[in-house]
Design a protein that fits this description.
Length: about 210
């Protein structure tokens, strides 16, 4: 039986957010040290908007941590994206509670309401969610995917698409949040979001 999988396209947030980095694979960070990293916006991420995703199933957390671990391995090793290449040595991404909240909220929303996209049915986008979660840095974008059953598979899927691969490898990005939620009675069995941010304002692309 063919397993359904989906990457979101287009990865960019169209004209409204053209000044910001592209979204990759339609889903949106976590740390190489796991979800307990200290962060200046820890309190913001514990705000009422994030309450439903603070206590997360340990199995889901393990999936999120594994995605972060794999992403940081790729950043350290370097990678050939479909149309560009990145040398080894990119700094690891650090998990930030507010970005993790935004990612979890969207993954759960997609799994609950049976949709896949950068915008929810009300038109709220990744950058809106990061703001509502209290993120205090510079939002950079989001990767989405649905259907991929394991952390290794979803990261491989992202690496196979140029814009998503570039989002994972961006040198200016240093913060992330990862959200995983299972689907029950909906189109896909697995929903993934990774959000990206930066502690410093990135230089504009030439």
């Amino acid at each position: 039986m063919h397993r359904r999988t989906r990457l979101i396209w287009p990865p960019r947030l169209a004209l409204v957010l053209a000044a910001l980095a592209p979204l990759a694979l339609g889903a949106c960070p976590a740390s190489d040290e796991g979800p307990d990293d200290a962060s200046s916006d820890e309190a913001a991420a514990d705000a009422q908007w994030c309450d439903e995703v603070v206590d997360w199933d340990p199995a889901w957390v393990a999936f999120e941590d594994a995605v972060l671990e794999r992403v940081n391995e790729v950043r350290a090793e370097g990678v050939e994206c479909p149309s560009s290449s990145y040398e080894p040595g990119a700094a690891p991404l650090r998990s930030v509670p507010s970005l993790r909240c935004a990612a979890r909220k969207h993954a759960l929303d997609m799994a609950t309401r049976d949709f896949v996209g950068n915008f929810d049915p009300e038109g709220v986008n990744a950058f809106d969610r990061m703001e509502m979660a209290g993120y205090e840095g510079f939002p950079q974008g989001q990767n989405l995917a649905a259907g991929w059953p394991t952390p290794e598979a979803v990261v491989s899927g992202w690496l196979d698409v140029e814009d998503y691969c570039k989002q994972l490898m961006a040198p200016a990005t240093d913060e992330t949040g990862i959200g995983y939620a299972p689907g029950v009675g909906v189109t896909y069995e697995h929903y993934w979001t990774q959000t990206f941010g930066s502690t410093t304002e990135p230089e504009p692309e030439p």
